[in-house]
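Good morning C.,

I know you're traveling, so I'll keep this short. The sequence:
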Amino acid sequence: MTQDTAGLKLSFEYWLDKAVQWGQTTTLESQQDVCLHLPKLQEFLQQIYESLKHMNSTTAIQRFPLIGQLLGRLCWNPFVVGYDKSQKTLMWCLSCLYSNEPQNPVELKANSWILSLLCHLLSSSEWGTNEVGTGTFISALGYTSVDYYSKLIKNIVLSLLTELKGNQFNGLNIPGRVSDDYVNAVSLFCVPLITLPDVTPLLEALLTYHGGGSQEVLSSEFLEAVNETFLKKKIALSESAIISLWLRHLPSLEKATLHLFERLISTKTSSLEEVACIVKDSLLPQVSCQPAIFRIVDEIFKNALLETSGTPEVMTMIQVFTQCFVQALQKDNKQHKFPLKAYFPHHHQPLVVALLKHPFDLPAVLWSQHLKYITDMLKAVVEDKSIRSHADLFESWFLLAHFGEWIDIAVEQLLKSEDKSSDAFLWLLAFYYSPHNDKEQRTQTLVEARAVYDRLMMLFSCTTLSITDLQAAANTKTDKRQSCTRHLVRHLLLSFLLFSSGGHKIAQEFISHVILGSNSASEVFGLLTRTAYRFNQLGLKNQRTVKLMK
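The tokens, ready to paste straight into the viewer:
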């Protein structure tokens, strides 16, 4: 990329010299020279656009400080503007330089200049006035060029909006008013103008427009450009427009979901509150209230989980996304009620309802009872003899993975409450950490987990503990255990350190020297942040456990 930029900078000087020489092409020699160089110039402008579209306006000016001079001169050269796709490419380049949120007077002035050039190019296109001597005409009206061009673009947008809306009645297309080819052309016309605020109403009208046939009427170039610009926060669109965009153009929805993954992975967050803010900011949980969108996004999450072998980071993303989605669903369903089966069509519906019940919607004294209910249903589904394939088991596990807060609460209940549900909760943990194990393997996991759990419960009320005591109870020196059993035991150990009085005193040392020594830092961090997030939602701020986690 650096080498490409360096090459473009050298070409910049050459083409700027040419643009200065050409001027307004008033001589025959300069006109002939322009015509000779037009194919190479168009190729250069395309390369410039390909670089600019990956930058914000500030970076573009820093990288190419002479770009304003070059584009300005070329836009006023009628031979350049009239050649092939040069006019459109110039508009694309100018659109990339437009600051959607200008921060200072320089950027404000630059925006006015860019708007003036864009409208000048529009006025010489099929959408404009095709007037000659526009500058003299503007002066005669008593307008500045910026005022005139601003009104021009607003009038063009208003005219196109009127045509589109006149073709729709109560959401239905009226044949014969505006052709699908015309709407497609309008969408292409908008591509270089996407970042201009005055064009936003036209973008939204196009996104919510549907032709009379089953074929997509908007150009894929337009849909991709709108999605790209929206993901980069260069434009703001209504939720209904985004829903329509992602429903009618699957690649845009896939790209938006992958973009969310990239943001979450690249952003160093210290709390799940920050993760939740990023997730909500993507608008994906909100628009996932449309069942078709939810199922596609969920499928992408599933594939990400499989490709990363269930890393803690991806698991946490899925759980936070699910929480944000459920919040949006509860709010949205006051207006638009979709059955749960529309979101989870292949799952046991009573189990879905039980998992969707947020822990904070129940008194804490009922958590154990609700967890037992969830476990009994899940166990009946998993151990159903008609379910034989790994795919069926994975689907049941993936449903459970969406609601990981119930798993964390199950471990907490195991350690803090003395009831007869320990066998059920240990089974729930064994399935969570080893969904593909057969009955014999899961039985072995349960035997080992039960042994560790019993030893930990004997130490739970001790006020003074040593690392040696805890190591002996957990038997952490044994490497012969299945991987799933090690994860389960680690979860029990961390919860023991957080919720037992004796564990508090040795927690920091034990985690630093014993648990983190087993290359499980991300797993430990994930559990601590999830617990802190749950406690913050409960409003618990002064407990010793909260201080210990911090």
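Safe travels,
E.
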